[in-house]
């Protein structure tokens, strides 16, 4: 199999690279998933305060604990950066994240969390299972997968008016390719996978 090479301008400095870095940080999986989980929790409960509490509890397991593990790995020198840009380093953080989300899902179910919150966590579990498998041989874009899943969940939850968030997909994909972190194929595959999982799992279980 031939190795895909990132675009030649990926390392070229300039406004484009700076903008791409900002987009990558603002739309990082931990950021998008945290905001989405809190929004779904808030929307899924009759009381705003109770819904927010469900969202925050779910966020602890789906992003808080996994991201803390990654930051610890960076500080100890086991991981190169908080995006885990080296494919060979991704397996353990992804497995840790999978265990955290699965544990959170079990706890949320036991406590009687709203179905949309459980559905979102379940989609996260399946997404991480696939990511763990694929990362063994290919650097799938998790940024793109999460962005696509976020758009799908927002549209399913709040209606077609949230299609205005669709340009987010192109922006995230451009930033990952511009920085040389992914190829176009890796971005497209990640986006397709994330959208499919959200469209099937979240839509079915919510």
UniProtKB/TrEMBL annotation:
<feature type="transmembrane region" description="Helical">
    <location>
        <begin position="92"/>
        <end position="111"/>
    </location>
</feature>
<keyword id="KW-0472">Membrane</keyword>
<feature type="transmembrane region" description="Helical">
    <location>
        <begin position="22"/>
        <end position="45"/>
    </location>
</feature>
<dbReference type="InterPro" id="IPR036938">
    <property type="entry name" value="PAP2/HPO_sf"/>
</dbReference>
<keyword id="KW-0812">Transmembrane</keyword>
<feature type="transmembrane region" description="Helical">
    <location>
        <begin position="184"/>
        <end position="205"/>
    </location>
</feature>
<feature type="transmembrane region" description="Helical">
    <location>
        <begin position="51"/>
        <end position="71"/>
    </location>
</feature>
<feature type="transmembrane region" description="Helical">
    <location>
        <begin position="145"/>
        <end position="164"/>
    </location>
</feature>
<protein>
    <submittedName>
        <fullName>PAP2 superfamily protein</fullName>
    </submittedName>
</protein>
<keyword id="KW-1133">Transmembrane helix</keyword>
<feature type="transmembrane region" description="Helical">
    <location>
        <begin position="117"/>
        <end position="138"/>
    </location>
</feature>
């Amino acid at each position: 199999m031939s190795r895909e090479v990132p675009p030649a301008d990926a390392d070229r400095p300039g406004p484009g690279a700076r903008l791409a870095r900002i987009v990558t940080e603002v739309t990082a999986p931990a950021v998008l998933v945290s905001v989405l989980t809190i929004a779904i929790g808030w929307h899924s409960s009759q009381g705003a305060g109770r819904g927010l509490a469900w969202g925050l509890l779910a966020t602890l397991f789906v992003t808080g604990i996994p991201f803390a593990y990654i930051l610890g790995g960076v500080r100890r020198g086991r991981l190169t950066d908080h995006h885990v840009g080296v494919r060979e380093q991704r397996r353990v953080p992804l497995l840790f994240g999978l265990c955290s989300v699965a544990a959170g899902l079990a706890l949320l179910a036991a406590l009687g969390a709203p179905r949309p919150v459980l559905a979102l966590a379940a989609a996260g579990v399946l997404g991480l299972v696939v990511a763990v498998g694929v990362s063994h041989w290919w650097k799938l874009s998790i940024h793109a997968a999460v962005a696509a899943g976020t758009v799908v969940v927002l549209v399913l939850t709040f209606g077609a008016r949230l299609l205005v968030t669709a340009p987010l997909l192109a922006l995230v994909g451009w930033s990952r390719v511009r920085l040389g972190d992914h190829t176009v194929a890796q971005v497209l595959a990640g986006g397709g996978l994330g959208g499919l999982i959200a469209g099937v799992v979240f839509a079915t279980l919510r």
